[in-house]
Amino acid sequence: MTQGNLWTGILLFALPLAATGILQQFFNAADIAIVGKYTGEQGELAMAAVGANSPLVGIVTNLFVGIALGTNVVIANSIGRGDGKSINRAVHTSILIALFGGLIFSLIAQAYAVPILSSQNVPEEVLPYAVLYFRIYMLGLPVILLYNFEAAILRGMGNTTTPLLTLFLSGALNVLLNLFFVLRLKRTVDGVAIATVASNGVSALVLLIYLMKKDTPARVRLSDLRIDTPTLGKIMKIGIPAGIQSTVFGIANIIIQSSINSLGPLVMASSSAAFNIELFAYYVLNSFSQACTSFTGQNYGAGKIDRCKKVIRLSMIEGIIAMAVAIAVILFFGKDILHVFNDSPDIINVAYERLMIIFSAYIFTLSYEVISGYLRGFGISLIPAILTTVGICGVRLSWIFLVFNNHKTFNTIMLAYPLSLSATALILFVALLMIRPSRKAENEKKRALSKAGNYPEDQ
Asked: Do 277 and 334 touch, CB atoms closer than 8 A?
């Protein structure tokens, strides 16, 4: 990351990361497709139930994925400085964050599953399926989070290929287990939830074994498993704002999902199918944001500020190209892909309409994601978290309460996305121009060299 061709380096980092995100999303898409196609008359209700869970599951997992970004940055900075002890402390602290955090949230979910889902306007006929899926999925939260933190450790080291290969294995296992539980054992949402948890458990175990056997500064040793308080503080300083940013997104999406739920099971099922497809393109653009974070973090740690400035430019350019290709492919094959979830023409038409509206604003999504990733690479996490919260949530919630409540149609809900995404991109761009983290880093470097007697103060 700190030397060699950046164009090639970013691309080789981002593409396996994009494929990893797509495979993770494939877990949920496979759940919805299989229950939608193979559970007979219950198909629409089962699809709606799994879809109703997406924002809720997203809130919890995105909170910890955000915290895992703190792990990514801390390890990347430590590698840039060549500080093996800091890497070791970050690795073992992160693993315990995943396990303990997952356990706590899993217990909360079991106790409050019914009131949480009831508050989303989930129709009465869908609620039992939604609660069952939610409880089983959340039981597996510790291993799901463990995988995400292990992947963050490897990304901080510049390794995105190993998590990808691991997910190929668990993704195939997930599909096979889905088919086994639904076709052979005649289960519905409970079967696909168990399959998802089991396959995530396998991927977490494989990466743990890899980290225990790989002789690197990030090697996991059971005897070293402890929470180092200063390292925890560094991770949380970056990770908590990033996690809260993702969580607030989730809360806004829950309110939108609640509005979607009020339009009935058909719209719920349509939106659920489209959401699972549009996320494939999102993971492509998000991979360049994460690449920007990791490359900026290592180069900032190594004092190579000029490379940091090149990283954000190349991440944007490569992200635009990759995102355009992904969206073109999805829209061209969109209706054929939607048939995988359900054969109803009404569901397919509404779902495709959502795809068209959401993708129209993805250039703004890429912009604020890359800018946020760049700032986090410098250790600046709170500012992008606050600004994206204001941009995304402020606009979406205002739109729902002021506009949708007076014009209750699916298109009205969907317009909240392009409006909020474009506003957020503009806010983050202005913030980047004002903060100028690379200039501040260069000044810090000059002052440090001057104090050491290696750099004249007035240069």
From this structure: yes
And the tokens for 84? 């093996």
Q: Give the total residue count for the chain.
A: 459
Helices (H) and strands (E) in the chain, counts: 18, 0
DSSP line for 54-96 = HHHHHHHHHHHHHHHHHHHHHHHHHHHHT-HHHHHHHHHHHHH
CA–CA separation, 355 and 230 (whole Å): 44
CA–CA distance, 213 with 458 (Å, rounded to integer): 50
Q: Is the pTM of this model over 0.85?
A: no
Q: What is the pLDDT of residues 113-161, one digit of tens each?
A: 899 888 877 888 888 888 999 999 999 999 999 998 998 888 888 888 8
State the helix-helix crossing angle for 43-81 and 265-301, rounded to 10 degrees: 0
Structural contact between residues 33 and 340, judged by C-beta atoms closer than 8 angstroms: yes
116, amino acid identity: I
DSSP 41: G
Percent of the chain with pLDDT over 90: 30
Classified as helix, coil or strand, 215 is coil
**Torsions phi, psi for 228 (to 5 deg):** -90, 115
Q: Determine the 3-state secondary structure of 370 from DSSP.
A: helix
Token pair recorded at residue 419: 């409006």
Neighbouring CB atoms inside 10 A of 368's CB total 26
Phi, psi at 360, each rounded to 5°: -65, -20
The angle at the Cα of 130, spanning 97 to 69, to the nearest 5 degrees, equals 25
Contact 387, 429 (CB under 8 A): no
Round to whole Å and give the CA distance between 134 and 345. Answer: 28
Q: Which of 18, 16, 2, 81 is nearest to 311 (CA)?
A: 2
**Three-class secondary structure assignment of 340-375:** HHCCCHHHHHHHHHHHHHHHCCHHHHHHHHHHHHHH
User: What residue ranges in 182-341 does DSSP mark as E strands?
Assistant: none
Q: What is the pLDDT of residues 67-76, one digit of tens each?
A: 888 888 888 8
Tokens 């940055």 belong to 73
Tokens of 297: 């973090």
In whole angstroms, give the CA distance from residue 323 to residue 283. Answer: 9
Rounded to the nearest 5 degrees, what angle is found at the Cα of 211, between the Cα atoms of 209 and 216?
Answer: 145
Cα 22 to Cα 281: distance, rounded to the nearest angstrom = 8
